[in-house]
Design brief:
This protein is 48% helix and 14% strand. By secondary structure, it is of the alpha/beta class. The N and C termini lie far apart (60 Å).
C-alpha cells in the first residue's frame, strides 16, 4: 500500500531523489527498499504491490522516479506506466523485471518508461539508472541495450508486394476466383454482380496481364499465389 510522504533527505545540500517501488513480491520489494535506502542520495518514499496501487501512490507521493515491475495482479506495470506518464510526465519510470523479451522491452518504451533493467541487476546499476532517469536521461542495462541496438540494426522488413498492381481491387478479386476455377456465372453470383460486369472485368484482366485467355490467366495468377485453395462451393 502507498506509504505516507517522507521528507527528502538532503545530501550535500542537494535534495535526495524520491523513489517509489512497485512490485507484487513483498520479499523482493522490501529487500530492494532496504538496498536503495542504503544508497546516499536516494529516498524510498513508498511502495506499492500492483499497478493500481502504483497509480494511487504516484498521485499521493509525487516521487521523482518509480521503479516498476511488469507482471503484477490487477494492473500490469506496462499499463500502469502508461497511465502514470500521462498524468505525471515529470515522473521518470525505470522498469525492473525478469523479462528481456523484445515485445516487453518495446511495450515499456512505448508506454513511457525511460529505463529498463533486469532483476538481478546490481546495486550500482540500479542506482545509476535511478539517477539517470531522475536527470531526464534514458538508460538500459547492458543486455537490454544490446537487444535494443540489435533491433534497430536489423534491415527493415519489406512489405509483401501486391500481386498484379496494375489491376484494380475488384479485378484482383475476380482473378482470384478465376484462378480458383470459378466460372463467370459463379463469380457473378458470388460477388452479386451482373454477368456482363464480370465479363468486362475478365476482359480487362486479360488485357492488363497480356494473356490470350482464361488458361494463361489462371497460370499467371497461380504463379503469383492466387487461387491456391481451388474451387469451392458456396
Amino acid at each position: 500500500m502507498p506509504e505516507s510522504p517522507a521528507p527528502a533527505t538532503p545530501t550535500g545540500g542537494v535534495s535526495a531523489i524520491r523513489v517509489l517501488l512497485v512490485d507484487d513480491h513483498p520479499v523482493y520489494r522490501d529487500g530492494l527498499a532496504v538496498l536503495l535506502r542504503s544508497i546516499d542520495g536516494l529516498d524510498v518514499v513508498g511502495t506499492a504491490a500492483d499497478g493500481l496501487e502504483a497509480i494511487a501512490a504516484a498521485d499521493a507521493l509525487r516521487p521523482d522516479v518509480i521503479v516498476m515491475d511488469v507482471q503484477m495482479p490487477r494492473l500490469d506495470g506496462i499499463e500502469a506506466t502508461r497511465r502514470i506518464v500521462a498524468r505525471h510526465p515529470d515522473i521518470g519510470i525505470v522498469v525492473l523485471t525478469m523479462s528481456e523479451a523484445d515485445e516487453t522491452v518495446f511495450d515499456a518504451m512505448r508506454a513511457g518508461a525511460r529505463g529498463y533493467l533486469l532483476k538481478g541487476a546490481g546495486q550500482d546499476d540500479i542506482s545509476r539508472a535511478v539517477r539517470a532517469v531522475a536527470g531526464g536521461d534514458a538508460i538500459f542495462g547492458p543486455r537490454i541495450a544490446a537487444r535494443v541496438a540489435e533491433f534497430f540494426a536489423r534491415p527493415p522488413v519489406a512489405a509483401d508486394p501486391v500481386a498484379f498492381p496494375q489491376l484494380t481491387a475488384r479485378e484482383r478479386e475476380i482473378l482470384e476466383l478465376v484462378a480458383a476455377g470459378r466460372s463467370n456465372g459463379d463469380i457473378a453470383e458470388h460477388l452479386f454482380l451482373s454477368p456482363k460486369t464480370v465479363r468486362n472485368n475478365v476482359s480487362n484482366i486479360f488485357a492488363k496481364l497480356q494473356v490470350s485467355g482464361r488458361a494463361e490467366a489462371v497460370i499467371a495468377a497461380r504463379d503469383a499465389g492466387l487461387g491456391r485453395g481451388g474451387a469451392s462451393a458456396e
